[in-house]
Amino acid sequence: MITLLPRVGFINGEEFASGVNMRTCIYVAGILGLAIAVTQTGIGGAVGNALLQVMPLDKDNPFTSFLALTGITSALNFIMTANGVPALYTTFAQSFADATGFPLLSVIMIQVLGYSTPLLPYQASPIVVAMGLGKVPARAGMQLCLALAAVSYLILLPLDYAWYQLLGKL
């Protein structure tokens, strides 16, 4: 938000007045507020505990646990957006580490693939801001997110798992 301010960020006062849609700024503020509300009301904690109960976290099957942890962050992305997922997920990291047998640091790092891969544009407010500034239709933004998610999950997820295995961190 600070980079959108006149004389502070990447655009000057004229560009801000003519190019920045205030609805987009309000949307970003709403998304950030939602992340705080979900965390502070306990909704996020309830969802995290429910996910912990139903996800197949198993010390004997590290690949399934790796997929489950990535899936948890992807699922949290739908209720919190990428801005709030790390704050909530990290509070459960020790429980996830105990359930999977993974080192705590590995559990914390696994979340990045899930929250950095939005399936829908609203899950990452910078995408929404960029779409607003570039007048990109919602459909095009959604297609891009889904294409990037497919590449991330089909190529990057197995590579991440192999890298963790190579380092001996799972």
From TrEMBL:
User: Which domain of life does the UniProt lineage start with?
Assistant: Bacteria
Q: Which UniProt keywords apply?
A: Membrane, Transmembrane, Transmembrane helix
Membrane-crossing residue ranges in chain numbering:
26-51, 63-82, 102-122, 143-164
- Please give the name of this protein: Di-and tricarboxylate transporters
Q: Provide the species name.
A: Klebsiella pneumoniae IS43
